[in-house]
Specification:
This protein has 16 helices and 8 strands. The protein is of the alpha/beta class and 444 residues long. This is SF4 helicase domain-containing protein.
Length: 444
């Protein structure tokens, strides 16, 4: 039958040239076999593995390290860097990628149908069934699968334990000392969720969970979907400079305040070599948008991100639009799973992620949060390894304290609430105080 009619090498050239020279992230939506020319598939391998654009000589060197046949790729490198891409926009390249996806579907389908016809002619009943199943799954992306043999993987597990022996705090701290001591911090590959009723301070908690590790040398990406960037920054300024937040909100500054603020920032600039990158995305952004921004930031700094904080889950949408509103419980659970997949798989290493979630109407004013109080279904709570709840009942209000309740902490059993004495004037959540008579968490 021939599959030549389902190839468009000029479109393949424009897509791979755009990725190599302008924005490598377009390859996130591309599979290797979208390219029918082998050289372009090799370029795809290099660009997608390094997650970077690159000059002509770098691409040539990287290919030379892997392949001993320069004639296979050198002419196509020249084509890629001579191809005119100035007028190709991100929107244009998405259209080109969709075309390649469609052509690849027809190309693979045709090849399999030809194979199926031959097998039918030869009377190969079992092979016919197998090929028919393969045809039915063409175009369906398979989930990543992790495998390993128990005994062969011993050395890998041993290295994990040795790292924990050398450094008991293996995770990233929150600044809530008792929680950090019990949990060891949130670790790479984990999704942590903070829940609480409206206006209780979830956003302040999340920003504290981001700023505290940043002050201790971690690289942090803080994603906010509700506030403008300046508001997020002023909240951080308030905490760092110990200046009341209302001064920033109202512009009620004295000359002394301005000097103190500027001096604080200058001191941090001198001693901080790590970054705290703020990303303000629109509501209804997706986990994929967050992942792409993370990749861009790592490219920008040439450093790995240690922690991503997203404020917050319920105003996102899933990567693939489900039926109906993003507020439907199944779509919200999909968002949680997609954030979890970033935590597990980000650049094949994983990353730690904190996010926030609302509570049900039933939980408003309660003195004890439970998993059933997680808005949009318990499924969200099952996805996360850590679920923390912020609670402030009438007694707490009188004492000006708040409870940090642990609804889930990996496989640990029930943990008593941690008492916090927040100071929202300075955007601080993590000043703890144990009530008289409460059993010390150090003994749990």
């Amino acid at each position: 039958m021939g599959s030549e009619r389902y190839r468009d090498t000029s479109t393949e050239l424009r897509v791979i040239a755009f990725a190599l020279r302008k924005d490598h992230r377009v390859l996130d939506d591309v599979e290797r076999d979208y390219f029918s020319i082998r050289a372009y598939s090799l370029f795809f391998d290099i660009c997608s593995s390094l997650k970077s654009t690159m000059p002509q000589n770098m691409l040539r060197d990287k290919l030379g390290e892997r392949f001993k046949e320069p004639d296979l790729y050198l002419p196509f490198i020249l084509k890629c860097f001579q191809c005119k891409i100035d007028k190709i926009t991100e929107k244009n390249v998405k259209v080109l990628i969709e075309k390649l996806k469609r052509l690849r579907y027809f190309r693979l389908s045709l090849e399999k149908v030809e194979e199926l016809i031959n097998q039918i002619g030869d009377g190969q009943e079992e092979e016919v069934r197998k090929t028919a199943r393969q045809i039915a799954t063409i175009g369906i992306k398979q989930k990543r699968v992790y495998t390993g043999e128990l005994l062969k993987d011993f050395e890998e597990r041993k290295e994990i334990i040795k790292a924990r022996m050398e450094k008991p705090m293996v995770g990233i701290p929150t600044g809530v000392e008792r929680f950090d001591r019990i949990s060891g911090g949130i670790v790479k590959g984990e999704l942590g969720i903070v829940i609480g009723e409206t206006n209780i301070g979830k956003s302040i908690a999340l920003e504290n969970f981001a700023l505290y590790p940043w002050e201790r040398g971690y690289n942090v990406m803080y994603v906010n979907l509700e506030m403008p960037k300046s508001q997020v920054e002023f909240r951080a300024d308030s905490r760092l400079a110990k200046l009341k937040y209302k001064k920033f909100r109202l512009g009620d500054f004295t000359e002394k305040d301005l000097i103190k603020w500027e001096k604080t920032i200058k001191e941090y600039r001198k001693k901080r070599k790590n970054f705290f990158e703020i990303v303000c995305l629109p509501r209804s952004c997706s986990p994929l948008d967050v992942e792409r921004e993370a990749e861009r930031i790592q490219d920008q700094y040439g450093k790995k991100i240690d922690l991503i904080v997203v404020d917050y889950l319920n105003i996102m949408r899933p990567n693939r639009e489900g039926k109906g509103s993003s507020k439907l419980w199944e779509n919200q659970v999909d968002i949680a799973w997609e954030l979890k997949e970033i935590a597990t798989d980000f650049q094949e290493e994983g990353i730690a992620i904190w996010t926030g979630n609302q509570v049900t109407d039933e939980a408003e004013g309660t003195s004890e949060l439970k998993k059933k109080h997680i808005k949009y279904g318990r499924g969200i709570g099952e996805v996360a390894q850590i679920v923390l709840g912020l609670v402030q009942d009438q007694d707490d209000l009188l004492e000006n304290v708040m409870q940090l309740q642990t609804l889930k902490l990996r496989d640990l059993h029930k943990i008593n609430p941690i008492i916090l004495r927040p100071n929202f004037d300075f955007m601080m959540l993590n000043q703890e105080e144990v009530r008289p008579g409460m059993r010390s968490l150090a003994n749990i």
